[in-house]
Design brief:
The protein is an all-alpha fold and about 260 residues long. Among the domains are: about 70 residues, Tetratricopeptide repeat domain (Serine Threonine Protein Phosphatase 5, Tetratricopeptide repeat); about 50 residues, no CATH class. It contains 14 helices and no strands. Helix 5 packs antiparallel against helix 6 and helix 10 packs antiparallel against helix 11. The longest helix has 29 residues.
């Protein structure tokens, strides 16, 4: 906040000592910058409403005024991603980052890379994002870093990233569930169960077949038979046709 105030004061002081012609040029530049931002905002609104052609038209108008407008490149990247124009999407993500799109552009690019199955590249970008201590989505970025690490087989790094997520935001139910699953597969049943219970407190109504199946095994591992039965009943009632229910039935028969 102090940096923003200082920058505004410097601009005021400079404006007081420029010539009339310089002031005119500054006014013209300000008008252009405002027009660029307006076109970008229009483009984003069209994108949110799935009007992709109109979104591209507005974003291209912004670029016709400023060919280094990072926000316009980011918008185009998102449009091309939806259209499955993968090469064009990546080209525009890279331009958004190159032209000063900041942490948000890097985050969006990392999500794109993850969704394309390029987990090492995504991991590197998410790691860059988490270095920004002021980024609004930092907790989410640590969670996505954990997902990337796990895809790469780096379970210890994934656990560490999940723990950082939950240090920053203790309400991220999905992070508790991801941590519980990892810890279970590491043989740390007690800690895994604690994480699973935190997930249940936050999002028990959002249980999936896979989360119930994990809970059943955790309850069994720490000798909570009543909870095993409760979760198994939910699995049978809500997901009787699921692969997880079939796994549960086989598991129960073997026991």
């Amino acid at each position: 906040m102090k940096r923003l105030t200082l920058a505004a004061l410097v601009m005021v002081l400079l404006a007081g000592c420029v010539t009339t012609s310089s002031r005119t040029r500054l006014d013209e530049q300000a008008n252009t910058d405002q027009a660029v931002q307006t076109y970008i905002q229009i483009g984003y609104r069209h994108f949110e409403n799935n009007n992709l052609h109109q979104a591209k038209a507005a974003l291209n108008e912004a670029l016709s005024l400023d060919d280094q407008a990072a926000g316009a490149y980011l918008g185009l990247a998102r449009v091309f991603d939806v259209e499955r124009e993968t090469a064009l999407a990546e080209e525009n993500f890279q331009r958004a980052v190159r032209y000063g799109g900041g942490t948000e552009s890097t985050f969006q690019y990392a999500v794109f890379l993850y969704n394309e199955g390029r987990y090492q590249a995504a991991r590197d970008r998410f790691s860059d994002v988490t270095d920004d201590a002021f980024y609004l989505r930092r907790a989410q970025s640590f969670e996505y870093l954990a997902l990337s690490e796990r895809r790469l087989g780096h379970d210890a790094a994934a656990i560490a990233a999940y723990r950082r997520t939950l240090t920053l935001d203790r309400q991220r139910a999905s992070a508790y569930l991801g941590l519980a699953d990892l810890l279970y597969h590491q043989g740390e049943s007690s800690d895994a169960f604690d994480a699973y219970q935190s997930f249940r407190r936050l999002a028990d109504a959002q249980q999936s077949a896979s989360s119930l199946w994990l809970g059943i095994r955790l309850a069994e591992a720490i000798n909570r038979p009543e909870l095993t039965v409760e979760l198994a009943d939910q699995l049978a009632r809500r997901f009787a046709n699921s692969e997880e229910f079939q796994l549960y039935q086989s598991w129960r028969e073997e026991r």
